[in-house]
Every structure is written in structure tokens, then in C-alpha cells.
Write a structure and sequence with these properties.
Rossmann fold; alpha/beta; single chain; 7-stranded mixed sheet; 5 helices; 196 residues
């Protein structure tokens, strides 16, 4: 009799656990079920796109970026938005325009080496760590164009990884920046603060 009661308790426990697992599964987000859709970014208006500027990296290469000055000239914050691989800085035009127009900071959007309209060698670098060096050079130059009290780095996809690597190197040099990673599959652009 004891065996039958123990078996019944185990069976009920198993059914309860199976039910909890089955009915508490996370809901499938249909917005991210398929491939990433860039149609919204591609369809965005680019009539007010700032002209391309260039800076010289430490190896002498001319690299492109766009600058979105903060509205009202009030913000003392530099915001650098770093794109992911196989894309370019124009992906951030709507976001950069809004951040600058709202007076949250001057936004700088680079085309990483090997990316953009006319890269020397598409998707290629000369050595491991060159993108980090390029970002550090851009930050030094961008800081020189304004008296910024704060620098915020944000990156999408592999650009987020670049931002995190740059930040680690910045802390090693005694100069860390706030950093953000932008989730590539988000339905709406979300920025999440990451702690060192």
C-alpha cells in the first residue's frame, strides 16, 4: 500500500512540474521570430543627413564620420554611436538626429575602417586591435572639437563589442567612458547601461 501511495504522489508531482513547465514557457515574440528587418532603417528620411567629415587615424588613413551638433549648444556630452559589421554609420541617422535635436549631446557617428561608402578594403583591417585604435583616435579628435564633460559610447552588435573593448582599454589608461550596447533584434531601440 505504501508503494502505491508513493507512486501516486510521484505521478501527481510529475504532472504538476510538467504542467508548470508547459504553461510557463516564455511567449514567442513574433517581432523577432525571423531575420532582422532593416526596412525601417533603410526607409528613414536621409534628406537632412550631415555631410561626411574625416579624421586621420594613427596610421594616416582618412576615416569618415558624421557630426550631429546638440540643439541649443547646451549639452556638454559627446555621444558616439558605433555601428555593427556589414553596415555603416548612417544606420544611426534617425537616432543621432533625435538625440542631438533633444539637446542630449553632440553625436558623432563613424564609419568604421572597412565600412561606409568608399572603404579602402571592405571589411578589412591591418592588425587585430586596429578598430579599437581607430575609435580611440576618433575620441581624441572629437574631444578636441568641444569642451565635453561626459563621453557616452554606444554600439550595436559588433559595435557594442568594440565599445566594451575600448572602454576596458580606457579604464586601463585611467579614462573610462559610460558605455551602452544596443540589442540588434529589438523591436524598438533600447539602450541598456552596462556596468564596469
Amino acid at each position: 500500500m505504501f508503494f502505491v501511495i508513493a507512486l501516486a504522489i510521484c505521478a501527481v508531482g510529475f504532472l504538476v512540474i510538467a504542467g508548470l513547465i508547459a504553461f510557463n514557457a516564455p511567449a514567442r515574440n513574433e517581432a523577432t521570430a525571423g531575420p532582422i528587418d532593416f526596412s525601417t532603417a533603410i526607409a528613414a528620411g536621409y534628406d537632412d543627413l550631415p555631410s561626411t567629415e574625416t579624421y586621420r587615424a594613427r596610421d594616416g588613413a582618412a576615416l569618415a564620420f558624421r557630426r550631429y551638433p546638440a540643439a541649443y549648444g547646451a549639452a556638454k556630452r559627446l555621444i558616439v554611436l558605433v555601428h555593427g559589421s556589414a553596415w555603416h554609420g548612417m544606420q544611426f541617422h534617425p537616432m543621432a538626429s533625435r538625440l542631438a535635436a533633444d539637446g542630449l549631446g553632440t553625436v558623432v557617428v563613424p564609419d568604421l575602417r572597412g565600412h561606409g561608402a568608399v572603404p579602402a578594403r571592405r571589411g578589412d583591417v591591418d592588425y587585430i586591435g586596429q578598430l579599437e585604435d581607430d575609435l580611440a583616435d576618433l575620441l581624441d579628435i572629437a574631444r578636441g572639437h568641444g569642451a565635453f564633460d561626459e563621453v557616452v559610447l554606444a554600439g550595436h552588435s559588433s559595435g557594442g563589442g568594440l565599445v566594451v573593448r575600448n572602454d576596458r582599454q580606457g579604464f586601463e589608461r585611467g579614462r573610462g567612458e559610460p558605455r551602452f550596447a544596443i540589442e540588434p533584434a529589438a523591436e524598438l531601440v533600447r539602450m541598456e547601461r552596462s556596468e564596469p
